[in-house]
Design brief:
Order of helices and strands: HEEEEE
Structural class: alpha+beta
Number of domains: 1
CATH architecture: Roll
Low-confidence stretches: none
CATH class: Mainly Beta
CATH topology: SH3 type barrels
Organism: Alectura lathami
Distance between the termini: 26 Å
Helix content: 10-25%
Number of strands: 5
Mean pLDDT: 94
Largest sheet: 5 strands, antiparallel
Shape: globular
Keywords: Phosphoprotein
Protein name: PRAM protein
InterPro entries: FYB1/2-like, hSH3, SH3-like_dom_sf
Pfam families: hSH3 (PF14603)
Number of helices: 1
Length: 87
């Protein structure tokens, strides 16, 4: 990981914390997979795009309906709990 990447990641994390009013450190609780049978959706607002079979980092189990996740492009957003599978 280069210094430049590190700075970019820190910036992405700060923006996420501001946008989602997320306080404290960002910890990955677990990883889950988007159901390969799920309908793919373009993200928008605070929702992550859904890609079948994608492995996401779980940051927070927000509520019964959604989970706050981070994808491999280091984008953050909500994903419907219904489409997430435990690895």
């Amino acid at each position: 990981l280069t210094f430049k990447n590190c700075k970019k990641e820190e910036k992405a994390d700060r923006e996420f914390q501001k946008k989602f009013k997320f306080e404290g450190s960002i910890n990955v609780l677990t990883q889950m997979m988007v159901d390969p049978a799920a309908t793919e959706k373009r993200g928008g607002g605070k929702n992550l795009p859904l890609r079948r079979g994608e492995i996401l980092d779980v940051i927070q189990f927000t509520n019964q309906e959604q989970i706050l996740c981070r994808n491999s492009q280091r984008r953050y957003g909500y994903v419907p709990r219904a489409v997430m599978l435990h690895l």
